[in-house]
Amino acid sequence: MLDVHRLTVLRSVVENGSLQGAATRLGFTPSAISQHIAALQRETGMPLVERHGRGIRPTEAGLLLTEHTRRIQDEIARAETALADLRAGKSQRLTIRYFATAGAVLVPPVVSRLGVLHPEVRVALRWGKGLSDSELADAEIMVLDETVRVPAGLRVLHLLDDPFVAVLPPEHPLAAQEVIELGQLRSERWVDNEWPSTRCRETMLKACGAAGFSPDFAVEAHDYAAAAGFVAAGLGVTLIPRLALAVVPTASVVCRPVIEPVPTRAIAVVVKAGTESQPPLSTLLGLLRHEAEKHG
C-alpha cells in the first residue's frame, strides 16, 4: 500500500520543481526529501522523478501519482472538515444528483422526510444523467444499463426495475386489449419521446429490435409529457416508463402493459463505497428504497 505521507512529499517536489523547494515548504532537509522519494520509487517499482537542468521534473508515473495525491488530499481535507462540523454540531451537506423522472417522483418525498429526520442536514439537489469524474455527488440516482462503466470505489444499489408501457390514443384498436405485444405496434406511426437519444430511448429501441422492427418515428418530442400530448392528438403511439406516468398527463390517452419483450430500465443509486452505512446518507438510502418499493 502506498504511503500517503510519501505521496505528499512527491506532490511537493513536483509542484516546487526541486528537492530544496520541497524541503523548505515541508520543513524537512533535502536529504530527508530524497529518502522519501527513493522509498516511494521502491514501493511503486517505477522512477517517479528525473533530473532536468538544475531541477527535477516528474516522469509519467510521477505525474499520475501526483494527480491522484491531489484528489486524496482533497478527500482527507473534506473528511476533516465534516468531522469538525459534526463535532461542533454544525450542519452537514448532502448532494444528490437525479434524472428527470426520479426528480419528479422519487426525490421530493424522500428529501422532505429526510429533513424531518435530519434537520441539521443541508441537501443540495443537482440534475444530471450520469457519473461525473470531476464532481461525484453523495448519491447519484440514475438509469443503468450494460453500457455504463462504474469506476472502482463506487457501489451500485438497485432501487427498482421500471417497465415501459404502451401509450395509445383512446380510439386506437389496440386500446381495448389489456396487454399489448410489442410486435403489434410494428406498423404504427411512433412519437419519439427522448431526443437526443438517452439510455431510456436505447432500451425502447433495443426492445423493438427484439420484436423484429424499428419504430417509424413521425413525431420528435423531447419529454414524456409532450409525447403524451401528441399521442392524445392521434399522431402516433409511444412507450413511456411506468414511473413517469405518475407525473405525465394521461387522462386523454390509454396506457397498457407491454410484453414479448417487456422493455425495462433499471434505476439505481450510486454512492462511494463504504459511505452507505454512514448517516445521514444511510437514512437517505433507506427512504429511497422505501419510496421505490411503492412504484416497483
UniProtKB/TrEMBL annotation:
Q: Which family does it belong to?
A: Belongs to the LysR transcriptional regulatory family.
Identify the domain of life: Bacteria
What's the protein called, per UniProt?
Answer: DNA-binding transcriptional LysR family regulator
A GO molecular function annotation here is: DNA binding
Matching InterPro entries: LysR_HTH_N (IPR000847), LysR_subst-bd (IPR005119), WH-like_DNA-bd_sf (IPR036388), WH_DNA-bd_sf (IPR036390)
Q: Where is the HTH lysR-type domain?
A: 2-59
GO cellular component annotations of the record? protein-DNA complex
Which terms are listed as keywords in the entry? Answer: Activator, DNA-binding, Transcription, Transcription regulation
